[in-house]
Fold this protein.
Amino acid sequence: MPLVARKNTILVVYNRLLKITYFMATIEEILVECLARLFRDNIWKLFRLSESMINDKGPQFAAELIKELNRMLGIEMRLSIVFHL
């Protein structure tokens, strides 16, 4: 009998400008790489990068998500003041 991943969590993305809500089924114990891919494939392709993000996982999770999304999109992050002219 093949293993089937149960979708028991819903990722909710709300576009405040267009007043549209997107619902994506996922699993509760999702890795940040999988969540970034889900966001890229369903939201980023429509609207590009978000202006703001609200989440209930904490700031570390949001930072890891943005870092992984930037890696997938080929965006180089320069967080140090050393890179500014």
